[in-house]
Amino acid sequence: MSTTVLLCGDPQQPSEYMYEALGHLEDRGVEFERLDWLGDASPTQFRDETMSMEAEGPGSFDDSDIAARIDGADVLVVHKAPVSRELVESADSLDLVAAARGGTENVDVAACRELGIEVLHAPGRNRDAVADYAVAMLLSYVREIPFNHAALSGGDWDQVFDPERLPPDVRTTEVGVVGFGNIGRGVARRLSGFEPTILAHDPYVDDDEIAETGAEPVELDELLGRADAVTLHVRLSDATEGLLGAEEFDRMRSSAFLVNTARGGLVDEDALVDALDAGELAGAALDVFREEPLPEDHALVGRDDVVLTPHVAGSTRDAVLGGPRIVSEDLTRWLDGDDLVNTVN
Protein backbone atom coordinates (compact mmCIF):
# COMPACT_ATOMS: atom_id res chain seq x y z
CA MET A 1 0.00 0.00 0.00
CA SER A 2 1.52 3.33 -1.08
CA THR A 3 1.91 6.44 1.05
CA THR A 4 0.84 9.82 -0.31
CA VAL A 5 2.76 12.92 0.73
CA LEU A 6 1.42 16.39 -0.07
CA LEU A 7 4.26 18.91 -0.34
CA CYS A 8 3.08 22.46 0.24
CA GLY A 9 5.85 24.92 -0.50
CA ASP A 10 5.84 28.71 -0.52
CA PRO A 11 7.95 31.55 -2.00
CA GLN A 12 10.67 31.03 0.58
CA GLN A 13 10.80 27.24 0.27
CA PRO A 14 9.19 26.16 -3.02
CA SER A 15 7.78 22.66 -3.31
CA GLU A 16 10.37 21.80 -5.95
CA TYR A 17 13.08 22.15 -3.30
CA MET A 18 11.06 20.06 -0.89
CA TYR A 19 10.85 17.39 -3.55
CA GLU A 20 14.60 17.64 -4.18
CA ALA A 21 15.20 16.61 -0.57
CA LEU A 22 12.33 14.12 -0.20
CA GLY A 23 11.96 12.63 -3.66
CA HIS A 24 14.26 9.71 -2.94
CA LEU A 25 11.42 8.22 -0.87
CA GLU A 26 9.68 7.31 -4.11
CA ASP A 27 11.91 4.23 -4.00
CA ARG A 28 9.96 3.33 -0.83
CA GLY A 29 6.61 3.52 -2.63
CA VAL A 30 5.86 7.11 -1.60
CA GLU A 31 3.78 9.16 -4.02
CA PHE A 32 4.17 12.94 -4.01
CA GLU A 33 1.76 15.70 -4.83
CA ARG A 34 2.86 19.34 -4.87
CA LEU A 35 1.44 22.82 -4.52
CA ASP A 36 2.73 26.21 -3.43
CA TRP A 37 0.91 28.44 -0.96
CA LEU A 38 1.09 32.16 -1.85
CA GLY A 39 3.22 31.11 -4.79
CA ASP A 40 2.75 34.44 -6.59
CA ALA A 41 3.30 36.64 -3.53
CA SER A 42 6.11 39.17 -3.45
CA PRO A 43 8.74 38.82 -0.70
CA THR A 44 7.10 41.73 1.16
CA GLN A 45 3.61 40.22 0.92
CA PHE A 46 4.88 36.83 2.03
CA ARG A 47 6.82 38.31 4.97
CA ASP A 48 3.84 40.32 6.17
CA GLU A 49 1.49 37.33 5.94
CA THR A 50 3.77 34.92 7.74
CA MET A 51 4.77 37.38 10.47
CA SER A 52 1.08 37.95 11.18
CA MET A 53 0.54 34.20 11.33
CA GLU A 54 3.37 33.74 13.82
CA ALA A 55 1.58 36.18 16.12
CA GLU A 56 -2.01 35.06 15.51
CA GLY A 57 -1.76 31.36 14.66
CA PRO A 58 -3.02 29.61 11.51
CA GLY A 59 -6.78 29.76 12.11
CA SER A 60 -7.39 33.13 10.45
CA PHE A 61 -5.42 32.50 7.28
CA ASP A 62 -6.51 31.05 3.97
CA ASP A 63 -5.59 27.40 3.58
CA SER A 64 -8.37 26.58 1.10
CA ASP A 65 -5.88 25.59 -1.62
CA ILE A 66 -4.40 23.01 0.75
CA ALA A 67 -7.84 21.84 1.88
CA ALA A 68 -8.79 21.18 -1.75
CA ARG A 69 -5.84 18.77 -2.06
CA ILE A 70 -5.65 17.23 1.41
CA ASP A 71 -7.99 14.26 0.93
CA GLY A 72 -6.02 11.09 0.34
CA ALA A 73 -2.82 12.50 1.80
CA ASP A 74 -1.19 10.51 4.59
CA VAL A 75 1.49 13.15 5.21
CA LEU A 76 1.40 16.92 4.80
CA VAL A 77 4.74 18.75 4.59
CA VAL A 78 4.66 22.54 4.83
CA HIS A 79 7.12 25.33 5.42
CA LYS A 80 5.17 28.39 6.57
CA ALA A 81 1.75 27.59 5.08
CA PRO A 82 -1.14 27.55 7.59
CA VAL A 83 -2.32 24.22 8.98
CA SER A 84 -5.50 25.10 10.85
CA ARG A 85 -7.85 23.03 12.97
CA GLU A 86 -10.40 23.15 10.16
CA LEU A 87 -7.86 21.79 7.70
CA VAL A 88 -6.77 18.80 9.77
CA GLU A 89 -10.36 18.03 10.78
CA SER A 90 -11.34 17.94 7.11
CA ALA A 91 -8.55 15.54 6.10
CA ASP A 92 -9.70 11.97 5.59
CA SER A 93 -6.42 10.06 5.98
CA LEU A 94 -3.84 12.39 7.50
CA ASP A 95 -1.42 10.75 9.95
CA LEU A 96 1.49 13.17 9.99
CA VAL A 97 2.11 16.91 9.58
CA ALA A 98 5.69 18.11 9.13
CA ALA A 99 6.85 21.74 9.30
CA ALA A 100 10.14 21.95 7.44
CA ARG A 101 11.39 24.70 9.78
CA GLY A 102 12.29 25.08 13.43
CA GLY A 103 9.06 26.68 14.60
CA THR A 104 5.50 25.38 14.33
CA GLU A 105 3.57 28.62 14.85
CA ASN A 106 1.79 28.00 11.53
CA VAL A 107 0.47 24.61 12.68
CA ASP A 108 -2.42 24.05 15.11
CA VAL A 109 -0.46 21.53 17.15
CA ALA A 110 -3.22 21.17 19.75
CA ALA A 111 -5.76 20.17 17.09
CA CYS A 112 -3.34 17.65 15.64
CA ARG A 113 -2.75 16.19 19.08
CA GLU A 114 -6.48 15.79 19.68
CA LEU A 115 -6.87 14.01 16.36
CA GLY A 116 -3.89 11.71 16.89
CA ILE A 117 -1.84 13.34 14.14
CA GLU A 118 1.90 13.50 14.77
CA VAL A 119 3.62 16.85 14.18
CA LEU A 120 7.26 17.07 13.12
CA HIS A 121 9.57 20.06 12.80
CA ALA A 122 13.14 20.62 11.60
CA PRO A 123 15.26 22.11 14.39
CA GLY A 124 18.71 23.31 13.43
CA ARG A 125 18.01 23.49 9.70
CA ASN A 126 19.83 26.82 9.34
CA ARG A 127 22.29 26.51 12.20
CA ASP A 128 25.32 26.47 9.89
CA ALA A 129 24.04 29.44 7.91
CA VAL A 130 23.46 31.57 11.02
CA ALA A 131 26.74 30.55 12.66
CA ASP A 132 28.64 31.40 9.46
CA TYR A 133 26.93 34.77 9.23
CA ALA A 134 27.44 35.70 12.87
CA VAL A 135 31.15 34.95 12.60
CA ALA A 136 31.36 36.87 9.33
CA MET A 137 29.72 39.91 10.94
CA LEU A 138 31.96 39.66 13.98
CA LEU A 139 35.19 39.32 12.00
CA SER A 140 34.27 42.06 9.56
CA TYR A 141 33.47 44.40 12.45
CA VAL A 142 36.70 43.61 14.32
CA ARG A 143 38.72 44.36 11.17
CA GLU A 144 36.52 47.35 10.26
CA ILE A 145 35.80 46.02 6.75
CA PRO A 146 32.36 47.67 6.32
CA PHE A 147 33.70 51.02 7.45
CA ASN A 148 36.77 50.84 5.22
CA HIS A 149 34.51 49.93 2.31
CA ALA A 150 32.22 52.88 3.02
CA ALA A 151 35.17 55.29 3.25
CA LEU A 152 36.77 54.10 0.03
CA SER A 153 33.44 54.10 -1.79
CA GLY A 154 33.05 57.72 -0.67
CA GLY A 155 36.42 58.65 -2.16
CA ASP A 156 38.60 58.47 0.97
CA TRP A 157 41.80 56.40 0.92
CA ASP A 158 41.91 56.32 4.71
CA GLN A 159 44.94 54.51 6.08
CA VAL A 160 45.68 54.69 9.81
CA PHE A 161 49.18 54.29 11.26
CA ASP A 162 48.57 55.24 14.90
CA PRO A 163 48.68 51.94 16.86
CA GLU A 164 46.10 53.29 19.32
CA ARG A 165 43.55 53.58 16.50
CA LEU A 166 44.27 50.27 14.78
CA PRO A 167 42.05 47.19 15.32
CA PRO A 168 43.37 44.19 17.26
CA ASP A 169 44.16 40.75 15.95
CA VAL A 170 41.21 38.44 16.57
CA ARG A 171 43.58 36.21 18.57
CA THR A 172 43.95 38.87 21.27
CA THR A 173 40.22 39.47 21.75
CA GLU A 174 37.69 37.96 24.12
CA VAL A 175 34.42 36.94 22.46
CA GLY A 176 31.29 36.41 24.52
CA VAL A 177 28.80 33.86 23.18
CA VAL A 178 25.40 34.18 24.85
CA GLY A 179 23.44 30.98 24.27
CA PHE A 180 25.40 27.78 23.72
CA GLY A 181 23.05 25.61 21.71
CA ASN A 182 23.71 24.41 18.18
CA ILE A 183 24.34 27.87 16.75
CA GLY A 184 26.33 29.24 19.68
CA ARG A 185 28.59 26.19 19.65
CA GLY A 186 28.95 26.52 15.90
CA VAL A 187 30.11 30.10 16.35
CA ALA A 188 32.63 29.06 19.00
CA ARG A 189 33.91 26.21 16.82
CA ARG A 190 34.38 28.49 13.81
CA LEU A 191 36.12 31.16 15.86
CA SER A 192 38.45 28.70 17.57
CA GLY A 193 40.75 28.69 14.54
CA PHE A 194 41.44 32.39 15.16
CA GLU A 195 42.39 31.53 18.78
CA PRO A 196 40.49 34.22 20.71
CA THR A 197 39.40 33.65 24.30
CA ILE A 198 35.80 32.45 24.03
CA LEU A 199 33.47 33.14 26.95
CA ALA A 200 30.14 31.30 26.96
CA HIS A 201 26.97 31.78 28.98
CA ASP A 202 23.99 29.45 28.91
CA PRO A 203 22.06 28.60 32.10
CA TYR A 204 20.69 25.46 30.43
CA VAL A 205 24.08 23.95 29.57
CA ASP A 206 26.37 22.38 32.18
CA ASP A 207 29.63 24.27 32.76
CA ASP A 208 31.68 21.11 32.19
CA GLU A 209 30.01 20.60 28.83
CA ILE A 210 30.91 24.17 27.83
CA ALA A 211 34.48 23.75 29.04
CA GLU A 212 34.89 20.58 26.97
CA THR A 213 34.50 22.70 23.82
CA GLY A 214 37.36 24.98 24.83
CA ALA A 215 35.13 27.86 25.85
CA GLU A 216 35.16 29.36 29.34
CA PRO A 217 31.77 29.14 31.12
CA VAL A 218 30.88 32.41 32.85
CA GLU A 219 27.85 34.22 34.22
CA LEU A 220 26.27 36.82 31.98
CA ASP A 221 27.52 39.79 34.03
CA GLU A 222 31.11 38.59 33.79
CA LEU A 223 30.80 37.91 30.08
CA LEU A 224 29.46 41.41 29.43
CA GLY A 225 32.21 42.99 31.51
CA ARG A 226 35.07 41.14 29.82
CA ALA A 227 34.10 40.61 26.19
CA ASP A 228 35.36 42.70 23.30
CA ALA A 229 32.45 41.36 21.24
CA VAL A 230 29.16 39.86 22.41
CA THR A 231 27.17 37.66 20.03
CA LEU A 232 23.61 36.51 20.83
CA HIS A 233 22.28 33.01 20.10
CA VAL A 234 19.26 32.78 22.39
CA ARG A 235 15.62 31.93 21.72
CA LEU A 236 13.14 34.73 22.29
CA SER A 237 10.83 34.01 25.23
CA ASP A 238 9.25 35.81 28.15
CA ALA A 239 12.46 35.15 30.07
CA THR A 240 14.78 36.55 27.38
CA GLU A 241 12.70 39.48 26.11
CA GLY A 242 14.91 42.56 26.47
CA LEU A 243 17.83 40.43 27.64
CA LEU A 244 20.21 43.28 26.88
CA GLY A 245 19.07 46.69 28.08
CA ALA A 246 20.52 49.80 29.69
CA GLU A 247 22.00 47.99 32.69
CA GLU A 248 23.64 45.34 30.52
CA PHE A 249 25.09 47.88 28.09
CA ASP A 250 26.45 49.82 31.05
CA ARG A 251 28.37 46.69 32.12
CA MET A 252 29.98 46.27 28.70
CA ARG A 253 33.33 47.78 27.82
CA SER A 254 33.18 51.07 25.91
CA SER A 255 35.34 49.47 23.21
CA ALA A 256 33.04 46.44 22.84
CA PHE A 257 30.40 45.79 20.20
CA LEU A 258 27.28 43.67 19.89
CA VAL A 259 26.35 41.11 17.21
CA ASN A 260 22.73 39.95 17.00
CA THR A 261 21.63 37.36 14.44
CA ALA A 262 19.10 35.73 16.79
CA ARG A 263 15.93 37.75 17.51
CA GLY A 264 15.36 41.48 17.63
CA GLY A 265 13.31 41.24 20.83
CA LEU A 266 16.40 40.22 22.78
CA VAL A 267 17.71 43.79 22.62
CA ASP A 268 16.24 47.03 23.95
CA GLU A 269 16.97 49.08 20.83
CA ASP A 270 16.34 52.43 22.52
CA ALA A 271 18.85 51.54 25.22
CA LEU A 272 21.30 50.41 22.55
CA VAL A 273 21.04 53.74 20.75
CA ASP A 274 21.51 55.60 24.05
CA ALA A 275 24.60 53.53 24.87
CA LEU A 276 26.09 54.19 21.44
CA ASP A 277 25.35 57.92 21.69
CA ALA A 278 26.94 58.07 25.15
CA GLY A 279 30.08 56.24 24.02
CA GLU A 280 29.32 53.39 26.43
CA LEU A 281 29.50 50.93 23.53
CA ALA A 282 31.61 51.01 20.38
CA GLY A 283 29.04 49.66 17.96
CA ALA A 284 26.77 46.87 16.78
CA ALA A 285 26.25 44.50 13.86
CA LEU A 286 22.56 43.59 13.62
CA ASP A 287 20.58 41.30 11.33
CA VAL A 288 17.33 41.24 13.34
CA PHE A 289 15.10 43.95 14.76
CA ARG A 290 12.02 44.42 16.89
CA GLU A 291 10.15 45.87 13.92
CA GLU A 292 10.80 44.38 10.51
CA PRO A 293 11.37 45.74 7.98
CA LEU A 294 13.38 48.31 9.89
CA PRO A 295 11.77 51.76 9.42
CA GLU A 296 13.84 54.11 7.28
CA ASP A 297 13.80 56.73 10.04
CA HIS A 298 14.89 54.32 12.80
CA ALA A 299 17.62 55.69 15.03
CA LEU A 300 19.94 52.80 14.12
CA VAL A 301 19.87 53.62 10.40
CA GLY A 302 22.72 55.67 8.92
CA ARG A 303 25.06 55.42 11.88
CA ASP A 304 28.79 55.10 11.30
CA ASP A 305 29.13 52.67 14.22
CA VAL A 306 26.44 50.18 13.21
CA VAL A 307 26.26 47.52 10.48
CA LEU A 308 22.73 46.53 9.47
CA THR A 309 21.48 43.65 7.30
CA PRO A 310 17.85 42.66 6.54
CA HIS A 311 17.33 39.40 8.50
CA VAL A 312 19.25 37.23 6.04
CA ALA A 313 21.62 35.31 8.34
CA GLY A 314 19.72 32.04 7.90
CA SER A 315 19.11 32.46 4.17
CA THR A 316 21.25 30.03 2.20
CA ARG A 317 20.32 27.40 -0.35
CA ASP A 318 21.50 24.69 2.02
CA ALA A 319 19.29 26.08 4.79
CA VAL A 320 16.27 25.99 2.46
CA LEU A 321 17.01 22.34 1.71
CA GLY A 322 17.95 21.60 5.32
CA GLY A 323 14.38 21.62 6.62
CA PRO A 324 13.06 19.05 4.11
CA ARG A 325 16.18 16.92 4.61
CA ILE A 326 15.58 16.75 8.37
CA VAL A 327 11.92 15.92 7.70
CA SER A 328 13.05 13.26 5.23
CA GLU A 329 15.05 11.51 7.95
CA ASP A 330 12.01 11.29 10.21
CA LEU A 331 9.73 10.20 7.37
CA THR A 332 12.15 7.36 6.69
CA ARG A 333 11.88 6.33 10.35
CA TRP A 334 8.09 6.58 10.13
CA LEU A 335 8.01 4.33 7.06
CA ASP A 336 10.23 1.83 8.92
CA GLY A 337 8.02 1.93 12.01
CA ASP A 338 10.82 3.40 14.12
CA ASP A 339 10.51 6.11 16.77
CA LEU A 340 10.40 9.66 15.44
CA VAL A 341 13.06 12.12 16.58
CA ASN A 342 11.78 15.63 15.88
CA THR A 343 8.21 15.45 17.18
CA VAL A 344 6.54 18.37 18.94
CA ASN A 345 3.39 16.69 20.28
Largest sheet: 7 strands, parallel
Shape: elongated
Fraction of residues in β-strands? 15-25%
Order of helices and strands: EHEHHEHEHEHHEHEHEHEHEHEEH
Average pLDDT level: 95
Number of beta-strand segments: 12
Total number of distinct structural domains: 2
Q: Whole-number radius of gyration?
A: 23 Å
CATH topological fold name of the largest domain: Rossmann fold
Distance between the amino and carboxyl termini: 26 Å
* CATH class category label of the largest domain: Alpha Beta
* Helix content estimate: 25-40%
- Give me the side-by-side strand order of the main sheet: 8-7-6-9-10-11-12
Explain this structure to me?
The protein is of the alpha/beta class. 35% of the residues lie in helices and 15% in strands. It has helices at 15-22, 43-56, 64-67, 85-90, 109-114, 127-142, 145-153, 182-191, 207-212, 220-226, 246-251, 269-277, 317-336; strands at 3-9, 30-36, 75-78, 96-99, 118-120, 174-178, 197-201, 216-217, 229-232, 257-260, 283-286, 306-308. It has a seven-stranded parallel β-sheet, sandwiched between helices. Strands 2-1-3-4-5 form a five-stranded parallel β-sheet. The protein is elongated and about 75 Å long.
Write the layout of secondary structure elements.
Layout: E1 3-9, H1 15-22, E2 30-36, H2 43-56, H3 64-67, E3 75-78, H4 85-90, E4 96-99, H5 109-114, E5 118-120, H6 127-142, H7 145-153, E6 174-178, H8 182-191, E7 197-201, H9 207-212, E8 216-217, H10 220-226, E9 229-232, H11 246-251, E10 257-260, H12 269-277, E11 283-286, E12 306-308, H13 317-336
Parallel strand pairs: 1-2, 1-3, 3-4, 4-5, 6-7, 6-9, 7-8, 9-10, 10-11, 11-12
Helix pairs in contact: 1-13, 6-8
